[in-house]
Give the backbone structure.
Amino acid sequence: MLGGPGLESVVDQCISVITNDGRNIVGVLKGFDQATNIILDESHERVYSTKEGVQQLVLGLYIIRGDNISVIGELDEELDTSLNLSELRAHPLKPVIH
């Protein structure tokens, strides 16, 4: 997980965030603070299902509190655009238990 100073290297880049409640939010990192609260622009939530393809819910400019973040990762945009999300099936992530 990137955290604190490590996030500086991905500002203005596309990242994927997994929250403690199992949501996957993708967007462009615009800023963060010492508590790892983050601001994403052009963001959307990817909702996974075993019955139908991945739904993408547009969120736009979005703030995520640092204490609700489980994982932050860089997104390989070339690989991501080559995926056909409408054919992808997966179980939704379960909430993180600490």
Remarks:
- Residues 22 and 94 are 5 Å apart (CA to CA).
- The helical segments are 77-82.
